[in-house]
Amino acid sequence: MLTDIILKSIGKHIHLTDDETAYFISLLHPKQLNRKQFLLKEGEICKYSAFVISGCLRGYTIDENGQEHVMNFAPVGWWIADMYSLISQRPGTLYIEAPEPAEVLLLSKVKQELLFQEVPKFERFFRIITENSLVAHQQRLIDNLSLPAEERYTNFCKRYPSLINSVPKKDIASYIGVTPEFFSRMMGKMLRG
């Protein structure tokens, strides 16, 4: 069933009755994304949080020189959104794209607010998800400021083990803050030992 993955994820943090489960599922909107299809573009207002059922999404920005900077990935079982835009309902800065075909379940901000009113325990669930995201973001920032590229790559592998061989190497390089050329040299050096 399409919702099994999301219900298992939620079940790690809160217990739902059958009625609460049915109500939650009724608020979700499934969406298929093709390879290279955008869920969100810079300048758009983020109206949904997306939960990945299959495939992967990546969030990134593009600087004034046209260089992409990968901020995060969302493999199966992860949520993704432009949090600034979603919360403020102002135009966002992130592109959210499927580097490979993906299937997501969308929860709109409006329906999320209804969910909080009808099933208040979901506020706890989303607080936990947001706290985990904040901690991971802070740790990544500290890593990028203080760790060499090899250790940042090792941390990427720990955080996203399912993506090591499935996302383009240029995206991994961008995520750890190095050029694709440096990444290739680094990987060669790491493989030689």
Automatic annotation (TrEMBL):
Protein name from the UniProt record: CRP-like cAMP-binding protein
Concerning InterPro entries, the annotation shows: cNMP-bd_dom (IPR000595), cNMP-bd_dom_sf (IPR018490), RmlC-like_jellyroll (IPR014710)
Question: Pfam families, alphabetically?
Answer: cNMP_binding
Domain Cyclic nucleotide-binding: where?
A: 31-111
This chain's source organism reads Mucilaginibacter auburnensis
